[in-house]
Amino acid sequence: MESLSAAERKEFEVFATGIADNARAFSLPRFRQPVDVTLKGDMSPVTAVDRGVESMLRERIGSAWPEHGLLGEEYGATRTDAEFVWSIDPIDGTRSFISGWPLWGTLLALLRNGTPMLGILDMPALDERWIGHVGVGTTMNGARCRTSGCTTLDAATLYTTTPDMFTADEWARFDRTSRAAYTRRFGGDCYGYGMLASGHIDAVIEANLMPYDYLAIAPVVQAAGGVITDWEGRALGLDSGGRVVAAATPALHAALIESLARD
């Protein structure tokens, strides 16, 4: 895997944290305020805040790095075959945002040749931010963080956002796997992955995700010592399917993959 140089990492991180600050300054004052909600074609909600954050981020990235590609939830993809591509999820957890629940975030990723290298998971309402550099490390609010040392499913605290994201077959596989864990919990959207990176929980299993849902998460989890792949154990990229499994350790990840694969 081709890594970024120290100078590149610094330049991209300074830029990315700056625009994450801008996104937070736009979204947070509008949280728990009246907002118009419309439904997209897939019946998921969207607000002017989602669109406003993404528009601002796309403008800032396009101005600073016109040769870079872009992928965003609200306005689609451009030049995704470029060496560097930015992924944007302006409000991950729009249902949380519109219901006053603070577990929504902004996700930013930088990919190089299709591989996520830098990820930012920003939780404006909680004033928490994870930054992950693959091969370097993950920080939460500037302090280094690590995944837990959990290696067995029967000792693991396992999260998913909602049962509604699974097909009937996927639910059967998730239900069997999660019931073998020490405990399973629901809710959180992107926040669960931050909790995983900081060692508070041990695993997350989800389905029906889009690339902008997981591309920023991947560096945050990996650089904290965890493992994150699709359900078949393949690395995540622009063309991965929507099924994601993340774990604190390689041993726990292998146990999850094995359980999910059983008929």
Automatic annotation (TrEMBL):
It holds the Pfam family Inositol_P. Its cofactor is Mg(2+). Its EC number is 3.1.3.15. The keyword Amino-acid biosynthesis applies. Pathway: Amino-acid biosynthesis; L-histidine biosynthesis; L-histidine from 5-phospho-alpha-D-ribose 1-diphosphate: step 8/9. It is an enzyme of class 3 (hydrolase). GO terms for molecular function: histidinol-phosphatase activity; metal ion binding. Keywords: Amino-acid biosynthesis, Histidine biosynthesis, Hydrolase, Magnesium, Metal-binding. One of its GO terms (biological process) is L-histidine biosynthetic process. Mg(2+) binds at E73, D89, I91, D92, D213. PROSITE patterns: IMP_1. SUPFAM superfamilies: Carbohydrate phosphatase. It catalyses: L-histidinol phosphate + H2O = L-histidinol + phosphate. InterPro entries: His_9_proposed, Inositol_monoP_metal-BS, Inositol_monoP_superfamily, Inositol_monophosphatase-like. Belongs to the inositol monophosphatase superfamily. PANTHER family: 3'(2'),5'-BISPHOSPHATE NUCLEOTIDASE, PHOSPHATASE. This is Histidinol-phosphatase. It comes from Luteibacter rhizovicinus DSM 16549.
